[in-house]
Specification:
single chain, mainly alpha, 372 residues, globular
Length: 372
């Protein structure tokens, strides 16, 4: 019996992962040796945009070489967004918006409207990917501005650069999924939040509110977690105990509602919530062990902003792509948790909302992964 020992798909993905890893490492090492005057918003923006464009073309080339398209081996969801976005573009803005509300859950309206609007202007997937890359560059600038409030410019620059050029962000920028736009709005909300904390700008509160409203149409559970973290912050800084207790109670109600949204996500990803069907599915049954629950939550706490994927839900080829960037994230685990410890020890109140939000997000990611 012949045994297939060569898989062209896996080999191409491995090549892509190695190139992503080594190129990002070279980029970070290069900028780690630069002078302080190099660490500027302009340098970061153009570096991220240029790198993501070049690497995006390379990754989409691999996808086209093997699969005949540029959906990056994520067709199940990407094709659904693509087809309905094209339908939106054909119907026009008014009829297209009505169409979206009829065929999709509200947590997909944001992505479909954004993608459909771009398709309405120029019906091309590559234009959408270019916009995603532009949003990624803008996100890196906001991360840099947040970080430089509390870190040396060099540390803030390298942190923003490392996140924005990671393999999983490159991967998402090349797909037709909603993650790139969603991540942009999450970072924007945090950016406006810290702009308010550091400069007491009331217009920044409007920016936070606007981003949270938009996030409701992408990932409502994450929007609720961000609201909870903001309420916890205000509960801490307010001196009146009665008001603080009311704020904490309100935050608890919002968090409970977020858990309900998470449960809907789990049911949507476990054969529509049909328990009998889940039990009958041997793959899902294999991932229902206590060990998997432990490892899912443990993995979720191996670094900030987890991007974990259940192997049963994605192909091994995409896992290779994502693994290159996740390797760097392992190095963040100890400094991150040490920073959390020092923030609480020294009562750095400004860090509390971000730490609360990240911890909630980690718990949620572990819960969803363990339940898939």
């Amino acid at each position: 019996m012949a045994v297939k020992v060569y898989d062209r798909s896996f080999s191409m993905m491995t090549l892509g992962a190695v190139i992503c890893f080594t190129s990002q490492l070279s980029l970070l090492l290069h900028f780690s040796r630069e002078d302080e005057n190099v660490y500027s918003v302009k340098t970061l923006f153009w570096t991220v945009l240029t790198y993501t464009t070049v690497m995006g073309i390379f990754l989409m080339g691999i996808s086209y070489y093997y699969d005949g398209d540029t959906f990056m081996f994520s067709k199940s969801d990407a094709l659904w967004y693509y087809e309905h976005s094209m339908k939106f573009a054909d119907l026009g803005l008014t009829k297209g918006s009505k169409y979206i509300t009829q065929i999709a859950a509200y947590d997909d309206w944001g992505a479909l409207f954004l993608d459909g609007f771009l398709m309405y202007i120029i019906p091309s997937k590559f234009v959408l990917n270019a916009v995603y890359m532009l949003l990624g560059a803008c996100s890196s600038v906001m991360l840099f501005k947040i970080g430089r409030n509390y870190l040396p410019d060099s540390y803030a620059f390298l942190a923003a650069l490392g996140y924005s050029t990671s393999s999983y962000m490159l991967f998402f920028n090349c797909t037709f999924l909603k993650e790139p736009a969603f991540v942009f709005f999450v970072i924007s909300a945090v950016f406006f939040q810290y702009r308010y904390i550091t400069k007491q700008s009331r217009t920044s509160l409007f920016g936070v509110l606007l981003c949270i409203i938009i996030m409701l149409f992408f990932r409502p559970a994450v929007a609720a977690m961000l609201v909870v973290s903001i309420f916890v912050y205000f509960g801490i800084i307010l001196r009146k105990r009665a008001i603080s207790i009311f704020i904490y109670a309100f935050a608890f109600v919002i968090f409970a509602d977020a858990l309900k949204s998470l449960q809907e996500i789990v049911e949507r990803n476990t054969l529509g919530g049909d328990i009998d069907a889940v039990v009958a599915d041997s793959n899902n049954a294999a991932y229902s062990s206590s060990f998997n629950y432990f490892m899912s939550f443990f993995a979720a706490f191996l670094g900030p902003f987890p991007a974990l994927f259940n192997p049963s839900a994605g192909s091994p080829t995409t896992m290779v792509f994502l693994g290159a960037g996740l390797s760097y994230r392992l190095f963040l685990m100890f400094p991150f948790w040490y920073g959390v410890f020092m923030a609480f020890k020294n009562r750095v109140i400004e860090f509390i909302p971000l730490v609360v939000f990240i911890c909630f997000e980690m718990l949620a990611t572990g819960y969803v992964c363990a339940s898939l």
